[in-house]
Amino acid sequence: MKIIRITKETMHWFETLLPTDLTGRTANGEPLFFLGAVEEKTACGVLAFTAGEIAEIEYLAVSDPFRRHGAANALLDCLCRRAARSLIPVFCTFAAADKTDPLYLLFAEREDFTVIGLEGRRVRVTREQIDRCGALAKIEARGISCERFFDRPGWAQKAFLTELRRRNLFYLDDDTIWRSLVKPLCLTIGADDRLRAAVFIGRGPNERELTLPFAWCAPDCGGALIALFSALRRELLLEMPQGGVLTIDAVEPSAYGIVNKLFPQAEEEARYFEAVLDMDYVWGGTYDAGNDEE
Predict the structure, then answer these.
(1) Buried/exposed 37-49: b ≥16 CB within 10 Å, e otherwise
(2) What CA–CA distance (Å, rounded) separates 24 from 255?
(3) In degrees rounded to 5, what are phi and psi of residue 192?
(4) Cα→Cα distances 255→37, 160, 250, Å
């Protein structure tokens, strides 16, 4: 098996393995890099990562016919060798149904990575559960003053998103998610220069599904996020069809705690984990030997 650096000239070999949002990000000039696995003259695996002070794995995929051939581990080995040259840490945040998930096992079974469970969860809430949420109905009756995010001044939108990125709290950089947002359902509470809570709603893969890819509140502003959920409830009940489902990525601990309290019967779809390269393997020279990508 050969590991190569994917360039503009070789990108088309791997197009069936790459989602359009990743290739779109490179077209927009983002510093995204790709490694590819080739076996039997066939492009069979791809790893995408960003690199700077750290190397963050954004995407990893192997085609079905070549799974269990060692492609994923070979791609990771190549990335680790590249990062070791500059003592750059490597990590990957990912969602997995449980600890038997293939992606979880890939990292957990490697001696050079440590997998840490994060507090966030991805859950599914039905329209009926939203309708029956008495706590939100009571808050809604008091009247909530909120504002659509995209109705705020452009400078306020930019400042808010920039600050979230700076603190590594922003999860909407995926262009596919951003383009799927239902702008009237992206709600906020607070002044333009000091937002207290925000929720973003997007379209799911089918007409019955909406997604909540980001729910956030400032420190000590959990009450504002609950109030925002109550305002969102009214809008969701108008937007969602009977039998509709809302998939919530409650990645922040505060957001997950609130979602869990409001919807205790929600179905858990995935948990979040972080795989971190053990730098002892880098400092110990583990990656000094061996060939880089060909």
Answers:
(1) bbbeeebbbbbbb
(2) 30
(3) -55, -35
(4) 38, 18, 6
Q: Environment class of residue 70 by beta-carbon count within 10 Å: exposed (0-12), middle (13-18) or buried (19+)? A: middle
How far lies 162's CA from each of 52, 159, 226, in Å?
18, 5, 24
d(CA 73, CA 140): 51
Query: What region does 232 belong to: left with phi over 0, alpha with psi -120 to 50, or beta?
Result: alpha
**Whole-number pLDDT of residue 171:** 59
* Model pLDDT for residues 198-244, shown as the tens digit of each residue: 999 999 888 889 998 888 888 888 888 888 989 899 899 999 999 99
CA-CA distance, 237 to 254, in Å (whole number)? 24
Could you give the CA distance from residue 231 to residue 38 in angstroms, rounded to a whole number?
51
d(Cα 136, Cα 130) in Å, to the nearest integer? 8
In Å, how far are 11, 81, 137 from 72, measured between CA atoms? Answer: 18, 14, 48
Cβ–Cβ < 8 Å for 269, 122: yes
Both ends of the chain: CA-CA distance in Å? Answer: 10
The encoded tokens of residue 47 equal 């790893």
Q: How much is the pLDDT for 255?
A: 76
Count the neighbouring beta carbons within 10 Å of the beta carbon of residue 281. Answer: 16
Looking at per-residue confidence, does 178 or 186 come out higher? 186
- Cα dist. 61→35, 56, 267 in Å? 11, 15, 26
Does 254 score more than 90 pLDDT? no
Residue indicated by tokens 């979880």: 104
If one counts every other C-beta atom within 10 angstroms of the C-beta of residue 220, the result is 9
Other Cβ atoms less than 10 A from the Cβ of 292: the count is 12
